[in-house]
Amino acid sequence: MKKGTTYRCASCGYEAAKWLGRCPECQEWGSFEERGAPVKPAIQRVAAGAPSAPARPIGEVDVEAARARRTGVPELDRVLGGGLVPGAVVLLAGEPGVGKSTLLLEVAYQWAKTVDRSLYVTGEESAGQVRLRAERTGNVHERMYLAAESDLSAILGHVDDVKPGVLIVDSVQTMASPQVDGSPGGVTQVRAVTSGLVALAKERGLPVVLVGHVTKDGSVAGPRVLEHLVDVVLQFEGDKHSTLRMVRGIKNRFGAADEIGCFELQEEGIVGVPDPSGLFMSRTAEPVSGTAITVSLEGKRPLLGEVQALVSATAAPQPRRAVSGLDSARVAMVLAVLEKRGGLKLGDKDVYAATVGGMKITEPGIDLALVLALTSSFEDVALSPRLVSVGEVGLAGEIRRVPSVGRRLAEAARLGFTHALVPPDSGKPPAGIRVLEVANVADALNAAGHAR
């Protein structure tokens, strides 16, 4: 090692005295770059320069040019905070095959149809392949422009020629800048390409949407600075065995960062689902034991979901515990509380717990529904089909309050539910639903029996 040489992570800026294969700060592999000995700059007086524009009182600043424009996809506009803001850079990340390109083809089509020209640049497929998918989903318009490029300078040339109202780049990991060394997808290239596209967006007031890959743990691939450079980060989620897709806001400089949009992937493309609660509940002619309805909160959006449980005897020496769509740690905790505080002997039983429709619920507010579903299956007695339950279960068996109970119950009442079990002091209930406050697990089980 050269005297005075240091090594710095290109992803997060962590410095070390020697080269490391993996950054201990951000866990990025192969991101350390050699740097010379740090030189402390002399303190210099900076001369005043001419401002690019005079400062004005904030009340005189024109905001019309910064108003969001609707993309024509309402569920996406909901997450964006109203639409695409001129000059904004949006990063849409998701697993392969989840439907990112299909969604953005819909955005390009709707924008060309209602606003202005749209330019879709693909670096992963040929132009013919994208055209075939666009025809299959019905997203072909004369003001939609398509280019297959992987060079940043070529993209800038297409923007000069087409003069689009929105630019979509699929994906940022396949693009490369000729002015920077490194292969496409590398830390240096991803950062350089993103910086160039951000500068283009700000200079021309052009909204830019970037597609990003994700790592094995679901986080955005590439340097961490990538998320800091862009204005909006969206996560596109979905189970490959389900048609349901969700766009979740992670970062948003122009709106709330906790909104979600729901979509359904169909043969003819991707369709927004403005009222998705029905997707998460099964439809049976008669009530079935082991099912309970709850209302989870995804961002600011209440969604009704069904929790199912199956408790059965087993001859195996080690009973099985299987969980799908729920937090396995919370399911184990609820089982322990039921055995200790509810008197249910579950230690020698197989227990299966799941949600319906591919819904994933990890918030504590569904604990009470899980308690009711497990007890219903254990006793083989069905609950009332018009009963919902919301509440967190503590280790002492108490039922704790959860946020936005009123909003959850209003959604349940809108869909025809007439009874609800909630924690004490949950506020005034909405009209059309009878609320029963339960303080602990025993009260909840007793109240659920009277609500049948």
UniProtKB/TrEMBL annotation:
GO terms for cellular component: cytosol. The middle region has homology to RecA with ATPase motifs including the RadA KNRFG motif, while the C-terminus is homologous to Lon protease. It comes from the Bacteria. GO terms for molecular function: ATP binding; ATP-dependent DNA damage sensor activity; damaged DNA binding; hydrolase activity; zinc ion binding. Pfam families: AAA_25 (PF13481), Zn_ribbon_LapB (PF18073). NCBIfam families: sms. Residues 65-214 form the RecA family profile domain. PANTHER family: DNA REPAIR PROTEIN RADA, DNA REPAIR PROTEIN RADA-LIKE PROTEIN. Keywords: ATP-binding, DNA damage, DNA repair, DNA-binding, Hydrolase, Metal-binding, Nucleotide-binding, Stress response, Zinc, Zinc-finger. Belongs to the RecA family. RadA subfamily. DNA-dependent ATPase involved in processing of recombination intermediates, plays a role in repairing DNA breaks. Stimulates the branch migration of RecA-mediated strand transfer reactions, allowing the 3' invading strand to extend heteroduplex DNA faster. Binds ssDNA in the presence of ADP but not other nucleotides, has ATPase activity that is stimulated by ssDNA and various branched DNA structures, but inhibited by SSB. Does not have RecA's homology-searching function. A motif (RadA KNRFG motif) lies at residues 251-255. InterPro entries: AAA+_ATPase, DNA_repair_RadA, P-loop_NTPase, RecA_ATP-bd, Ribosomal_Su5_D2-typ_SF, Ribsml_uS5_D2-typ_fold_subgr, Rubredoxin_2. One of its GO terms (biological process) is recombinational repair. This is DNA repair protein RadA.
